[in-house]
């Protein structure tokens, strides 16, 4: 008998920590996420994921179908909610994001799975350049990941009109809206180049 995968077809972000995000601009972006047409988004439709170890292009085997796209948008909402504008990091673990986005599952034996979120991050969001993950050890010597949001992340979810209203945010991330973007990954610096403009993002 074929096994039917268990998943939440309509995930919804429900934060356990209320009023964590106080930046009005970030809250406005979260509110307007539903208005963005991700299906026809130029960045999603024109860019290819990159192997972070080799720098080679990856062939995207799994496209963002309806369910994956819904999960993607929900995770974006969670990342923004726990985003620290000063450190550019998400103050939440991947497990916490999976739980609060309704994307973690519990098996009959009681084991928790956060595969939907962990794979979305490692196999899509990170190779596409929307985020960077920094590994660290907690007090129990367990290796965890801290998520860093890149300028490309905000280029994906914001408009020129929104950015023009928040110059401090725009300057902090040095965000430029370009129609043609080429990504060049390195260990510490990510450069986004167009024919006429350059964008640099330093993680130091």
From TrEMBL:
**Highest lineage ranks of the organism?**
Bacteria, Pseudomonadati, Pseudomonadota, Gammaproteobacteria, Enterobacterales
Which biological processes are named by the entry's GO terms? DNA replication; plasmid maintenance
Q: What does this protein's UniProt record list under function?
A: This protein is essential for plasmid replication; it is involved in copy control functions.
Name by which UniProt lists this protein? RepA2 protein
Q: Which InterPro entries does UniProt cross-reference here?
A: Plasmid_replication_init_RepA
Q: Does the keyword rRNA-binding apply?
A: no
Q: Which organism is it from?
A: Buchnera aphidicola
| Pfam families from the UniProt entry | IncFII_repA (PF02387)
Q: Which gene encodes it?
A: repA2
Q: Which family, according to UniProt?
A: Belongs to the IncFII RepA family.
Sorted alphabetically, which keywords does the UniProt record give?
Answer: DNA replication, Plasmid, Plasmid copy control
Matching NCBIfam families, A to Z? RepA_IncFII_LM
